[in-house]
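User: what does the whole thing look like in 3D?
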Amino acid sequence: MTVTTDLVSYEDALASYDPVMGLEVHVELGTRTKMFCGCSTALGADANAQTCPTCLGLPGSLPVVNATGVESAIKIGLALNCEIAEWCRFARKNYFYPDMPKNFQTSQYDEPIAFNGYLDVQLEDGEVFRVEIERAHMEEDTGKSTHVGGATGRIHGASHSLLDYNRAGIPLIEIVTKPIEGAGERAPEVAKAYVAELREVIRSLDVSEARMDKGQMRCDVNLSLRPNGTEEFGTRSETKNVNSLRSVERAARFEIQRHAAVLSSGGTIVQETRHFHEDDGSTTSGRIKDNAEDYRYFPEPDLVPVAPAREWVEELRAGLPEMPRVRRNRLREQWGVTEHDMQSMLNAGAVDPIVATIDAGAPADQARKWWMGELARHANEQGKALDEMPITPVQVARVAELVAAGDLNDKLARQVIEGVLAGEGDPDKVVEKRGLKVVSDEGALTAAVEEAIAGNQAIADKIRGGKVAAAGALVGAVMKATRGQADAARVKELILEKLGVEG
Amino acid sequence: MTDIIKLTAAEIAARIASGELTAVEVTEAHLARIDAVDEKVHAFLHIDREGAVAQARAVDAKREAGEKLGPLAGVPLALKDIFTTEGVPTTVGSKILEGWLPPYDATLVKKLKAADVVVLGKTNMDEFAMGSSTENSAYGPTGNPWDLTRIPGGSGGGSSAALASYEAPLAIGTDTGGSIRQPAAVTGTVGVKPTYGGVSRYGMVAFSSSLDQGGPCARTVLDAALLHEAIAGHDPMDSTSIDAPVPPVVEAARNGSVAGMRVGVVKQFRGEGYQAGVVQRFDESVALLKELGAEIVELDCPSFDLALAAYYLIAPSECSSNLARFDAMRYGLRVGDDGTKSAEDVTALTREAGFGDEVKRRIILGTYALSSGYYDAYYGSAQKVRTLITQDFAKSFEQVDVIVSPTTPTTAFPIGERADDPMAMYLADVCTLPTNLAGNAAMSLPCGLAPEDGLPVGLQIIAPAMKDDRLYKVGAAVEAAFVEKWGHPLLEEAPSL
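Assistant: Here's the predicted 3D structure for the full assembly of 1000 residues, as structure tokens:
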């Protein structure tokens, strides 16, 4: 970006001002069909292939509510400690935009399905911060516009636009926090931790993959400053579509510095939307919102009210999984790892695969070792998430089992994993195909050891003389001769035995 | 030929079933009638000649194959141009949908096809069903077969005129504030607005979602019942559709009686603005009901005086949102797309050119009524009135089985007379609106000619929600008594075209 914005240093900003944030997160639900029609929600189809009269807004078409969408919304509400409405309606949010088929969005207005909740988020140092939730409501996504011919992909300067309505009607849950006060200098960190925690909660409920990089979870960061020690909120800016955890933190930080620069030079903040720029972490001006826009909300007459039976809500509450923060703390204690290690596993997306690997029979330390070591390295190289790697926890557990049984050493195990990732089949099949079994035939091993001693008399003498550490070189020679397929510990034992030295 | 077109739907179906007539003969007779008179009447916007004959052939083939035919198999029908028909033009009387070929059939159209009803074509209407005269059609007015210089009612004037001119024995209308019943009244035909949710709205282009209701139009009460039964029932594609059995309307129509029934007369449905001849025929109808054994009960429903005001806030509010989708992006008219204008400009130019004055008037009214700061005073208040009207009906139906009133305060007025006076036009629906706001069922059927102008007067019968069968029970009794008194159906007194 070439736009330059006056900023004050973060420390100076916080010395004078107190940030207040509001976070609005949109989550695309992972339902099989759209919110109000039977069209598929699968990604990757040809443009407009997944549309019907209803999601195209054709004259005469009508919506029907997706029951799974409502169930997901209630689960999210319950997980966020919200009250669930006994009776609520959809509402029409009226505004014109070419990628919105009906020129109104079917949403909820003053009767959200879930309201008045909170989410406790844990910061990196272990401190817990409670973020109050205003509401979570159901709505539908819009289509997608692609502006062609302009320099930046923006509408300005474009010669024409292409419209794809495959996304139109995909269920969204919008989760809105109450104003987040009292976070002070940690506001950006709280914002990031909140979105991260929310993502974990959504995933644990199995209602969405909540992948920010795929647009399944999108965050708007609303921020204002007020002079330290005052109560009244300042004018806010709304930074739209901040689409990674790191960006959420950076956007909040940038806006704090920008607001402080404007305010401290005697200026006023304009209520507007802002665009966030990943490249340099800045924001630039979008639409001015001098008055609240008039969306002319009114109850959607084409849909009957949603009145979830209390028994059903209680059933859903009883079926909620252990919440991620509670589970994390339990696992951290069980595994005996530090907060920092736990955080690394979390950031790597390794916690679930590790748990599944342990469930499949592997010892905890082995499961952690393989996922955070070898597999994390491969994933990193390929730019993939851990759960996208073509290996299952059961397969990893089997590798660990083979190592524990002495059938594989670490080096061979790494080759087995490589084979599984390369699509060569289950670990046992890779072992067989690649001939990777540890040489456990004592006769063959003994012969190799004798050969190594014979070829390295000088070293053998050192060992005989008590320099047990020198055995490493002989072990290396044996491993080389057996192409790594020997159990190194057993080789060392044999060498010492042959040379008549106590290990 | 003349004989075929004067038959009732029930008679046509019976003769096709017995082999006395073929469905193709019947269809061709009606197409010939349309060719002969529709230039004058202009009931149709589109005639689906090939589709109709093909459908008729299929019915004849079924009969020849020995398959059992339904009670309306082979009967021709005129469909209001507000229902989507796959591959057949659907304009809603508006320029904005000129040339649009819907990719899907409305649920009601699917049901008609399943019943082997032969759809002749699409009928004229006030643009987006907004009007009481069919003068608001973008494709020119329709004449009333009783007097071609007068309006056939609206918005479903094409359907009522098609029936009254013997172009079709059956028709489909939609009723948001009276658009089935008022046209029936001024053309001497029968029209029924079923209970809201009784007939699917899927594929019926929305004007005001919470008020719109499709329903049957016919020349006799029994024919209306047969059509009602064919199109009604729960539709999973329409959330507001009622998931309950269709009331026994055909059985009721075959067993007309008012003996022992309590019939309400609402004091708010008379007074200023009611034509003397209309009041006279209505009073005679009440006397007839008494003669037939009904007990007459006076009712006071003060909220009905507020119905018109509430309606003209709710319907425009919903329409301002429903009609937002006509933006030139996906279907229909597109104006100004010359490569220099933005999408927003093209949308604005298209809506400017594609919507008529009445539609624009209502979009502006509704947009205003929903605006922040005005919502509570307008839309919010109107919803409260709606609740009051529903309560007045509920209280009334504790005392009576049905309510009767004139369908509309006057007989058919001359084309052009009220075109520039929206308020005068809106008053045509003053007796029909409360039923739409409350969601219950109502019928209009002929009760004579006004002495001063010799034009038909309609009697409205109103029943509680999901008691649509009562309309037919009472309607059939009244119809039989009048036909006996007149010696023939009222429509026979219409001048020949």
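In plain terms: The CA atoms of residues 250 and 281 of chain A lie 6 Å apart. Chain A has three domains: 10-311, 350-434, 442-499.
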